[in-house]
UniProtKB/TrEMBL annotation, chain A:
Keyword Membrane: yes
TM helices/strands, residue ranges: 20-39, 45-69, 108-135, 147-179, 200-220, 259-281, 328-348, 354-374, 386-404, 410-426, 470-489
Taxonomic lineage of the native organism: Bacteria, Pseudomonadati, Pseudomonadota, Alphaproteobacteria, Rhodobacterales
Domain DUF112: 20-438
The keyword Protein biosynthesis is annotated on this UniProt entry: no
PANTHER family: TRICARBOXYLIC TRANSPORT PROTEIN (PTHR35342)
Keywords: Membrane, Transmembrane, Transmembrane helix
InterPro entries per the UniProt record, alphabetical: DUF112_TM
UniProt-recorded name of the protein: Putative tricarboxylic transport membrane protein
UniProtKB/TrEMBL annotation, chain B:
Record bears the keyword Cell membrane: no
Taxonomic lineage: Bacteria, Pseudomonadati, Pseudomonadota, Alphaproteobacteria, Rhodobacterales
Residue stretches making up the DUF1468 domain: 16-148
Organism expressing this protein natively: Paracoccus halophilus
Transmembrane segments: 14-34, 46-67, 79-112, 124-144
A Pfam family annotated for this UniProt entry: TctB
Keywords assigned by UniProt, alphabetized: Membrane, Transmembrane, Transmembrane helix
Record-given protein name: Tripartite tricarboxylate transporter TctB
TrEMBL record, chain C:
Family annotation (InterPro entries): BUG, Bug_dom1
A Pfam family the protein falls into: TctC
SUPFAM superfamilies hit by this protein: Periplasmic binding protein-like II (SSF53850)
CDD domains noted in UniProt: PBP2_Bug_TTT
Lineage: Bacteria, Pseudomonadati, Pseudomonadota, Alphaproteobacteria, Rhodobacterales
Source domain of life: Bacteria
The name this protein goes by in its record: Tripartite-type tricarboxylate transporter, receptor component TctC
UniProt family annotation: Belongs to the UPF0065 (bug) family.
Keyword check for Disulfide bond: no
Keyword Cell wall biogenesis/degradation (UniProt): no
Gene3D superfamilies for the chain: Bordetella uptake gene, domain 1, Periplasmic binding protein-like II
Keywords: Receptor, Signal
Leader peptide range in chain numbering: 1-20
Natural source organism: Paracoccus halophilus
Length: 502, 152, 318
């Protein structure tokens, strides 16, 4: 069978009424849990797994996949509307998305995010269909040394993200790295920076930090500035993006899609790296980098496209090699196995209807999400007109339930309250929290891969320049560093900063 | 925002420096017992210490120039929202475990609402009841969050 | 609330309520099943699959409560603080339950937790790429003798099953291998496929769910060959004494009345005998191996001693 036949087979499987219904159900459920802060798709899928026993294999898997990418869509809604990233990949969406919302352009931000995501999802789905097996080779060529180079590059690129002084951004990344080290050291089993608390042996959870520093601190500062009366957003100017918005976003979406599709293949921090490197890239190529962080549409379009593309392409290693690239994919693996299917090359040849049916359903699911979400934008935006006095207790409640539900324990909620205080202090000190979260996510990957590399080579660091991918990335890091240190670059940064102050 | 009296010191940057140096020092203190190891067999203390030292250096680099810059004040701090929101969250945590979701949620919404003066009691109570019902239906029944509804 | 206080309250409640509870057990209220791992992990899925069968056996409900963290310590601590009325059970995993007694100061007393029944025994195994030159443990050992430290072994961290198995092999064969810790079995598999490490440790259950064309197993570390891999020789058969299995089962507090624990064990035994459950277990590649709580517990002291001995190797500079 050739490619077109296989894709047709996939679509014929995916558009049976039952499969379509499960796809829609999954996408809706995913959107719901994505919008609710702190409730992640992993836990939801775990709870739903036993239910899928009673479904035919393909229907069950389609529904679970729908929850996953639906949650990606929903997550950006919360990031834009209330400045609360539900997961690491949505951190950068808050930077410009929330500023757009404050200027009364929440509708435009959400629409661009949805359309950009749909485009990216379409491209990535076809990338899976056409080049899945080939792309999986790319993921395998990333050994520990390549990861180290990628993370070093990524962490440096994270400083571009912040619009404040570089030094503060680097400091925040370092704090993030430090937080990432809390817990049991993977390599030696030593307990680090835990204050002896058994609850910290596995480290701090991303959700705890994000909800504390973004969610709780935001509520406290908002109330402090002027009480609930004062939290006023600019009146809604226009629900849909302008022609100018589209003109400025399309190239950003393209670049974001490309980056996201490639980085999504990598296990671990793929989707996070994708969204923020897409943002950093836009800021670098933009003619007016100083405007980033004040509500520019490219700053929403690129990372949203990137993280949705990455969400789709993270299926590639699972489907073609049987190796899940993150927790979510590990859950999908369990879902396959419950139905007696072992993902891998043999599924491609023996049960093509499963692989192609899922690929086709992903595209259909993305289409459904756009169709569901575009009309919902009007509703979401209305939410912003609810008086803050009524809105903030609701946000507070959803955040608390989200944090509590992760491990069902008091400790996490109190820790999140502590991070709320820390986030409050950061705001007083005018430090942006975005780079902290990225340092937190990428730090453990950097450390463990650095140690792995040096264990494998028995202490010889020359491997970093001997392997081509690692060499290229390290050279790119050096160039980036040079650009940042060069006086001319520094001047433009400072000018930009002053412009903001003015 | 420069203060009129002509004193020096960029307070937000000094606060930043204080936090960076403080967290770095705390990290160094906590990592004191950890083994540094060698490059080939990196110990658990290697990177934490490196990061803490860098953090302290960055703190100094931010803080020292800030001492001589024209004075800038930190935004005024108001205790009410800070304290009330924190207390409401901590109370929720304990209540959810020992008193069940319904009481925890009512506590959180009612106490949390007090962070903002001037709310009407009738509104707050209505909101608390509504959100609790919504939370119980969506989170506990719908999404299977593992928390008891009533005191155990 | 302090531990002592909780225990005191629990004791009072037991004294007053035990008689009544025993008579009605287990139909008057649900039995909470604490799972020591996050939703979606192997142990979680196994127990969620088993729960409906236990519910049918005992005519009650088994709601699952996930208390992940610290490789089970958080769940065991929660179990040891629950009322000893038979309405709280927990997952129990070895070697984690045993190894944490060696090197950690625990917040609960391991002697207060008694196994009810073992459900699964999943032997450890070493796997290499399908194209690797190593066909057996002997090949590997011969190569490692020539090139000390050159064989890198992917594990899931210090003191984990795979690491302990590797240390045993080093000791049994007198070779020097390099342990490379990964974040989990899947990360390690990826690194092996990409050729970044020579070999990785896995459990047979995890191995049998991978595509056979990509990997080859060298040995399994159980006393007898697992039902999942009847053709794979054990390390002992190949002349190296390496024994390492991860076992999963259920546990309750030791002061839960004997009668209730026996009923629970019988229910687990019956559920495991149910062909419908066996079918589901097969799909999930669960190597079922029922053993009664008493038998299982009897094996533990010897194993603990052996692990303690291996742990000394780590401290001895390995």
């Amino acid at each position: 069978m050739n490619f077109v036949d296989l894709l047709m087979l996939g679509f014929s499987e995916a558009i049976t009424p039952a499969n379509l219904a499960f796809c829609l159900l999954g996408a809706l459920l995913g959107t719901l849990i994505g919008v609710l802060p702190g409730i992640g798709p992993t836990a939801t899928i775990a709870v739903l797994l036993p239910i899928t026993f009673f479904l035919p294999p393909l229907a069950g898997i389609i529904m679970l996949a729908g929850i996953y990418y639906g949650a990606q869509y929903g997550g950006s809604t919360t990031a834009v509307l209330v400045n609360l990233p539900g997961e690491a990949s949505a951190v950068v969406t808050t930077l410009d998305g929330y500023q757009m919302a404050r200027q009364g352009r929440a509708g435009a931000a959400l629409a661009v995010a949805a359309l950009g995501s749909f485009f990216a999802g379409t491209v990535a789905t076809f990338a899976i269909a056409v080049a899945g097996p080939m792309l999986s080779g790319f993921a395998l060529s990333f050994g520990p040394a390549e990861y180290v180079a990628l993370m070093v590059f990524g962490l440096l690129a994270a400083t571009i993200l912040a619009s404040g002084p570089v030094l503060k951004a680097i400091g925040m990344i370092l704090i993030g790295l430090l937080l990432g080290m809390v817990g049991t050291d993977q390599a030696t089993g030593a307990e680090r920076l835990t204050f002896g608390a058994v609850e910290l042996f596995d480290g701090v959870d991303f959700i705890v930090i994000a909800i504390g520093i973004f969610g709780f601190a935001e509520i406290i500062t908002n109330l402090e500035r002027s009480g609930s009366e004062g939290v006023q957003l600019a009146p809604l100017s226009r629900l849909w993006p302008t022609r100018d918005d589209f003109r400025r976003s399309w190239a950003a979406v393209l670049r974001g899609t490309g980056l996201g599709t490639l980085l999504g293949l990598l296990p671990g921090g793929g989707a996070t790296l994708a969204s923020f490197s897409a943002y950093s890239l836009e800021k670098k190529v933009s003619k007016h980098p100083e405007k980033f962080g004040t509500g520019v549409v490219e700053g929403v379009a690129a990372p949203e496209a990137a993280n949705n593309a990455a969400a789709q392409s993270s299926f590639i290693p699972l489907l073609t090699l049987g190796i899940p690239s993150n927790n979510m994919m590990a859950m999908m693996l369990s879902a396959f196995m419950i139905h007696g299917i072992t993902p891998g090359p043999t599924v491609l040849t023996n049960q093509p209807e499963i692989f192609w049916g899922l690929v086709a359903s992903m595209w259909i699911g993305n289409l459904l999400l756009v169709v569901i979400n575009l009309p919902m934008i009007g509703l979401w935006v209305k939410l912003l007109t609810v008086p803050y006095r009524l809105l903030y207790p609701a946000i507070l409640l959803f955040c608390c339930i989200g944090v509590y539900s992760m491990n069902n324990r008091v400790f996490d909620v109190i820790l999140a309250a502590g991070f709320g205080l820390l986030g409050y202090a950061f705001r007083k000190a005018r430090c942006e929290p975005g780079p902290l979260l990225l340092g937190f996510v990428l730090g453990p990957l950097l450390e463990s891969n650095l140690r792995r590399t040096l264990l494998i080579t028995q202490g010889d660091p020359s491997i970093f320049v001997e392997r081509p991918i690692s060499l290229v990335m390290l050279l790119a890091t050096v160039v980036l560093l040079a650009l940042m240190i060069l006086p001319s670059f520094r001047r433009t940064r400072e000018e930009a900063f002053q412009e903001e102050e003015a | 925002m420069a203060a009129p009296n002509g004193t020096r010191g960029d307070a937000p940057d000094l606060l930043t420096a204080g936090m960076f140096i403080g967290l770095g020092a705390l990290g160094l203190y906590m990592a004191r017992g950890l083994d540094g190891g060698t490059l080939a067999q990196m110990g658990p203390g290697f990177l934490p210490r490196t990061v803490c030292i860098l953090l302290i250096l960055i703190g100094l680099a931010v803080g020292l120039p800030a001492l001589t810059r024209p004075a800038q004040a930190i935004e005024a701090i108001r205790i009410r929202p800070l304290a009330v929101i924190t207390i409401s969250i901590v109370g929720f945590a304990f209540a959810a475990t020992y008193l069940g979701f319904v009481l925890a949620s009512l506590w959180l919404v009612i106490v949390g609402s007090l962070a903002d003066p001037g709310g009407k009691w009738s509104h707050i109570l209505l909101l608390a009841a509504g959100l609790t019902l919504f939370g119980a239906l969506v989170f506990v029944y719908g999404l299977g969050v593992q928390v008891p509804l009533w005191p155990v | 609330m302090t531990f002592a206080k909780t225990t005191a309250i629990a004791a009072i409640l037991t004294a007053t309520g035990a008689g009544a509870a025993l008579a009605d057990w287990p139909t008057d209220r649900p039995i909470e099943m604490i799972v020591a791992f996050a939703p979606g992990g192997g142990t979680d899925i196994m127990l969620r699959t088993l729960a409906p069968f236990l519910e049918a056996e005992l005519e009650t409900q088994f709601p699952v409560l996930n208390r992940p963290g610290a490789s089970g310590e958080i769940a065991y601590t929660a179990l040891s603080q629950a009322r000893p009325d038979g309405y709280t059970v927990s997952s129990l995993n070895t070697p984690g339950f045993l190894t944490m007694q060696i090197d950690r100061k625990l917040r609960y007393d391991p002697a207060s937790i008694c196994p009810i029944a073992r459900i699964v025994e999943d032997p450890g195994t070493f796997i290499v790429q399908a194209g690797s030159e190593f066909q057996s443990l002997a090949d590997l050992v011969a190569y490692a003798r020539e090139n000390p430290g050159a064989v890198s072994v992917g594990t899931t961290g210090m003191g984990t099953d795979e690491h302990l198995a590797m240390l045993q092999l080093e000791q049994a064969a007198g070779v020097d291998l390099t342990a490379v810790p990964f974040g989990g079995a899947n990360e390690a598999k990826t690194a092996l496929l990409g050729g970044h490490v020579s070999m990785i440790g896995l459990n047979v259950g995890e191995y049998s769910t991978s595509d056979d064309n990509a990997f080859r197993a060298l040995a399994q570390f159980s006393q007898e060959r697992s039902v999942l891999a009847p053709d794979l020789p054990t390390a002992t058969e190949q002349g190296f004494e390496v024994l390492m299995s991860s076992e999963r089962g259920l546990a309750a507090r030791c002061d839960v009345p004997e009668e209730i624990r026996a009923k629970l064990a019988a229910a687990v035994d019956a559920a495991l005998a149910n062909p419908e459950f066996q079918e589901k277990a097969k799909q999930q590649a669960l190597p079922l191996a029922y053993r009664s709580g008493a038998d299982w517990q009897a094996e533990m002291p010897a194993r603990l001693a052996r692990f303690t001995e291996i742990f000394k190797l780590i401290e001895g500079g390995q």
